[in-house]
Amino acid sequence: MAKLLLATNNQGKVREYRNLFLELPFQAVTLSEQGITTVVDEVGGSLEENARLKAVAMAEQSGLLTLADDSGLEVDALGGEPGVLSARYAGEGASDEDRVNHLLSRLRKVPWPERTARFRCVIALASPEGRVELCCGECEGLIMLEPRGENGFGYDPVFYLPELGMTMAELPLETKNRVSHRGRAAREACRVLAGWKGLAASGGAESGR
């Protein structure tokens, strides 16, 4: 079975992707399992640029078909912030709790109907030979007044889904993967990977350059 490198050290993402790709003919492996310690700086100005940067760099280094993503929260009342800076919104080294608290402080005076937001995820699939495909997913919701739920990670505890009456952090993993931005992008990625499976047997997909 061909390997698919998950180019992230975020164990929450690893857990979700392994669940999402159970039916694919690939063995999902992590950076640590492959002995890779390289960190790719996210210097792009968009989610698309950052996902592509990480996927291409790790595919070249590992010689494996590689998946990398970048995701962000866009809050309408904040002009689309934190967006591409979601992971660094409260400064370098901040915890998930720090980022959530910073976001809530920015929205303290914003009334409930105006707390509309969306999660966006861009997945980049890259082969060692240079082929790259981008897959995107979005999920609309509202930002809670305070965190709720113990599941998930990041901003999940304050991202409320009106149609389900719960935050992302209150959903079981199966439900989250069905409705989330990452789940939607991953389903598109599954369709791409299904087309690449025959090409991956030798270590990667054919070049698309």
Short description:
The chain contains five helices and seven strands.
Structure commentary:
This protein is α/β, with parallel strands linked by helices and 209 residues long. Helix content is 29%, strand content 23%. The protein contains 5 helices and 7 strands. A 7-stranded mixed β-sheet has the order 2-1-3-4-5-6-7. Helix 4 crosses helix 5.
Give short descriptive properties of this protein:
Maf protein; 209 residues; single chain; seven-stranded mixed β-sheet; globular; alpha/beta; 29% helix
Number of structurally distinct domains: 1
Q: How many angstroms does the end-to-end distance come to?
A: 25 Å
Helical stretch tally: 5
* Architecture (CATH level 2) name: Alpha-Beta Complex
The order of strands across the largest sheet is 2-1-3-4-5-6-7
Indicate the low-confidence ranges by residue numbers: 202-209
Topology:
Elements: E1 2-6, H1 11-20, E2 26-30, H2 47-62, E3 65-75, H3 96-106, E4 116-126, E5 132-143, E6 159-161, E7 166-167, H4 173-179, H5 181-196
Parallel strand pairs: 1-2, 1-3
Antiparallel strand pairs: 3-4, 4-5, 5-6, 6-7
